[in-house]
Records
---
Amino acid sequence: MRIQVIGGGSWGLALARLLAVNGHDVRLWCREEDGPEELARTRLSPRYLPGIELPPGVDVGPEIDAEAEIAVFAAPSHALRLVADRFRFSPETIRVNVAKGIENDTLLRMSQVLRQVQGPCPVATLSGPSHAEEVARDLPATVVAASADPAACQTVQAAFMSQTFRVYTSADLIGVELGGSLKNVLAVAAGICDGMGLGDNAKAALITRGLAEMARLGMALGANPLTFAGLSGMGDLIVTCQSRHSRNRALGEAIARGESAEEYLARTVMVAEGVRTARSAHALAQRHGVEMPITREVYRVLFEGGDPRDAVAALMERDAKPEHG
């Protein structure tokens, strides 16, 4: 297949490599500041994926393939609208979103942004526990391709599936996108938990109750609650809250040490999607009347100068209630 990948960060590079190894004709576009000429010449990106070489099947260049069968949008969620407005494709091209976030101003999911900007077209989202650093090294990973269009789902599944990258399909686009986005907020909380040395019991409770928050908001927005027990919910939540590759967990640890989110983000080239998503998730919870206490405390720490110690106390001292119901 002819596949266009837009975005030369770690995930865009890892997916471009995967698709080329799968035998597809891949074209990769990346920003000037990411050094496309150097990448095209050396096939290496020490900044994003040290030690990983792009195969010959990846053509790095400034022009896009507007007639590609699949266009993979690998830009961060806050930049997706701008990127989608810049590049146009055939109405038949399947747009695949791989960003995990919710737009701040509109509170739209990424597939909604793509459809709003690109017009009527098939849209899918690829999500799940899949750190780029491991996918690029051909370590086993399993994800979900979600779309309201069954044919698009199956096409994306076939394109990305490999011996080390297993792809399931789902019709629950809302649930898959929300799971991938909201888990980043909870990973910030997990990092704070680790940084404060609160222990394994606290971390397990945080992940479990965080999953309940994700499902509550998802159901309010029309998602299938079972989706959050799957790869794009529980699976991605576990890996993002535990992994040394997790940018959002690292951010939380920095906050626990007394560093601000702004200071941490200023010293890393990677994007921690949980910061912006915390603002959107908090707004969605308020709009729909959904109780999300962990998300609320993360929001307070990030945007209202809240003290992490006070956040822990606020969560532990909430009124007693049944676990379910």
---
Amino acid sequence: MTKLVKIGTVQMSCTANKEENLSKAISKVREAAKKGAQIVCLQELFTSLYFCDVEDYKNFELAEAVPGPSTDKLAVVAKELGVVIIASLFEKRTHGIYHNTTAVLDADGTYLGKYRKMHIPDDPAYYEKFYFTPGDLGYKVFKTKFATIGVLICWDQWYPEGARITALMGAEVLFYPTAIGWATSQDELTNEEQYNAWQTIQRSHAVANGVHVVSVNRVGLEQNGAMKFWGGSFIANPLGRLLYLASHDQEDVNVTEIDLGRTDSVRVHWPFMRDRRIDSYQPITKRFIDE
């Protein structure tokens, strides 16, 4: 059975001005809604530059409560436009405990809840363990007006377990707000390999779970020109085919119509869910199988 939903993706650059970034994001949500979007996904940590490139205590001042000031403003916009908004924010939970968190606002402005990033990286220029406590809410789905959606965040992209569990919970679409880029000192072949790996792993989540995957990245030069966020936001259907692909260097507001009914037909003809041997998967809970 056909079930059409229009997905808005906002790929944008950011500045050091938090209010300016929020206003820009709201403007682009309006643009997506004007194009017919029903669910709009913003990129990871869209209210600021990607501050995890350094370990600087001052950056904790960027954090806020979730729900809080940003979700309050976005809720008004969601209700006015009748769209679902997926908003990635730096959450201050309490003194000394911070999370990388995505809030979901329904089309009537209702705050449906949040997902806290589970997998936290610690790489050169991506020092997220300095800032973020790993998520403790588990994997989440949100029953919005237009679809039941799952939300994961950036580094979660590399882990098939998170995608699988979220799909098993009933997610019809997996959304990945993201902030990932290339060091500008890298050669082009390395850049190409890294981007292709990033896209391929997420398209594989679509195939393995028979769901649409929406990945929304930021774009632009940051870290005084040392990092180029590679954009390349995309939407893949349940067989991994790209329905939309953004550029590597331009801001973009796009609306893509997807058919959630494809999940049923794909899972019938490619019955990966039927053939899962859940009785054999206990070893997956081990860090490494030494014996």
---
Amino acid sequence: MERINKCFHFFEDDPLEDFNTSKRVLCTPSQFARQNLAYVQEIGMLQCAKAHRNARSFLDSFLFFVVRSGKGTLCYNGRVYHISAGDAAFIDCHNAYYHESDSSQLWELAWVHFNGAHIRQYYEEFQRCFSAPILHLHNTQVFVTRLQEMLQTAAQNDFDGELACSYQLYALLADVFLCRREKMLQKNFSHGKIEEVKNYIDQWFGEDITLDMLSEKFFISKYHLERTFKSRYGTTIGAYVIQRRITRAKELLRFSSLRISEIAEICGVADSSYFNKLFKKSEGITARTYRDMWREK
């Protein structure tokens, strides 16, 4: 394994910001981390002693921060957002931005600069799902605790710490998306009915299921049904039906002696040729190859 080249600087009271109380860890990730992991570039806790402004652009980094107390302003992509305790932000630092504390209610932040494998894809999905870079958190402490734990992990200065930080960063991003879905469910009067739709698909995916049929059965417009289902479960109804069929097909291929044509019919696909196309598109191999590879010998 390669030798890890990493340097950390940990400041209990950051001399670069003598008007603030700041704890931070700077990280230089190993080559392995740069190529394969999500990695921390800089992480810290900031408590302002006077108004504080930070401006950057063209920075190869992503920033996530939580406002623990106080309030301030974030300017990002030409728009100004007023944020306060209980809010968080997720931004791409390639874009010009600044954030500054309100002079009358100085803020306290927990933050992390990070980058790495698939982070841009997460950010692009975040942009698709959210109308703004700001999150209004239901439980701020969950995010603060995760950042505090990450701060301690990053200070380990070893390969185990890099692996743990990568895990913690992906968990942080998962929390972001789960937070959004919780809020949508709280506002959406029909979320219980959407769960009924999913449960129905789970039970009857082997039958002929269409959006028109579900709309009529559950008394929901097709547009609202499709939009709400995707917001709740992250996939379209059609894709979810196929996923359930493929999963059942894999079970039968491994643990039964049924012919592939019989399995296709059980899973709701009468045309075995079309079934094979669906299976290969999903798994990258044919159903027969899957059976040969996974059957115990």
